[in-house]
Model the fold of this input.
Amino acid sequence: MLTMALLRQDPEGVKKKLHRKHFAPVEIIDYIIGLDDRRKKLQSDVDNLLAQINAASKEIGQLMAKGQREDAEAKKQAVAGLKDQLQPLQNEQTQVEQELHDELVKVPNLPADLVPDGKAAADNLVVKEGGTKPVLAQKTPHWDLIKQYDLIDFETGAKLTGSGFPLYKGKGAKLQRALIQYFLDHNTDAGYLEYIPPYMVNQASAYATGQLPDKEGQMYHITADNFYLIPTAEVPVTNIYRDTILKPAELPVKMTAYTPCFRREAGSFGADVRGLNRVHQFDKVEIVQLVDPATSYQVLDEMVAHVEKLLVDLELPYRILRLCAGDMSFNSALTYDFEVFSAAQEKWLEVSSVSNFETFQANRMKLRYKEESGKTQLLHTLNGSSLALPRIVAALLENNQTPEGIKLPKVLHRYFGSEMI
RNA sequence: GGAGAGGUGCCAGAGUGGUCGAAUGGGACGGUCUCGAAAACCGUUAUAUGGGCAACUGUACCGAGGGUUCGAAUCCCUCCCUCUCCGCCA
Done:
């Protein structure tokens, strides 16, 4: 959620940036400012009446204490009159505040200056490529390799739950465990504090990180208890600090968590969903940072480098994209996507997305810090995947296939317990 | 799941209708003292929002939401959460 202060300070600048994000109804900005004007006026009026009522009530108390009942009764009448005026104003105030809020949460975050113009994925900017694409004698796609080595049983997963719920088995299961542990170690070595959060969150949490109200349909909803299955660890982990004011000495807050992630991905179909390319439940290790606004872009670069190191060590061909304004998520000010090349499918697969949200999430969740001067300020929040597992597994299998088996990168040997599948 | 108790400021904890943004203690911060420190003493120490250049000042806020009342931390209702005991259980 953008801050009202920003909208008021530079409405035209805000509109310009929204244009870049292809957010059409920019008139809404003027409308919102108008609502805010009304809100202020109403609050003044309401506060005035309340002040009068409070003063009168105090007098009534004093009159009663002195035994001047009749004077007290007269005052009560006067207060009743004030309350009649108050009621409609308060109703309007609540309604205006509600509407203001409802409109404000529909406005996406503004793209940072670095964000390239563009509408869709094709306009994203490749800022770096690394690793080398393997030359394969045989290009068996991962879904066939999975069968061949008996790593994942999709059919039984579908029997247990539904399609898109993989049943990992044997070495397939162990590979998940190895990757998760490797990723977490990499993160905790870099100073991230490890958490195991709940895998379901309440409405307030889903709202605070921006999944609600706009992405309601993409989450699994436990209606009996009104909980949502988390689509990413970002939700519970960032919410740890919802509604808190941190001291400068506590910054930066660096957190990491492994969780399964649940996504309904309603409406997706076609070739993209084969094998591990897109599933309803998958494993992911996430990193989250809460930082001083002055440092957030430097931190973003650090996080990008941190994730990149994983891909280098996994010996996968990768590229880093700076997302264009039109392809960025609702919440983000600047996002880098990581893709690995899956050599049999001959496709780039997204395995991580690292973003700076600036104050957008912090404003929603009232996440602040107190400056030395005593002033409270919104923090910047950042997060990234380090990493999402399924597509990493797809690329590892496809890129490292040999007639003798799947050769695992060195970094995994210790975690997996052997060098080959 | 059943029974009981309770949710108050950074923490502990008082407050059961007005004089309560809230006693008291602790912590933190600033000051006095000191070569320095400790102790002692003095002071400061929520948040949101309106008005104001500011000093300052209005309003809201004692788990959340409603209600009663001229007036609610305090009374009533609903919900959420915590603790204790019982039941069940990995």
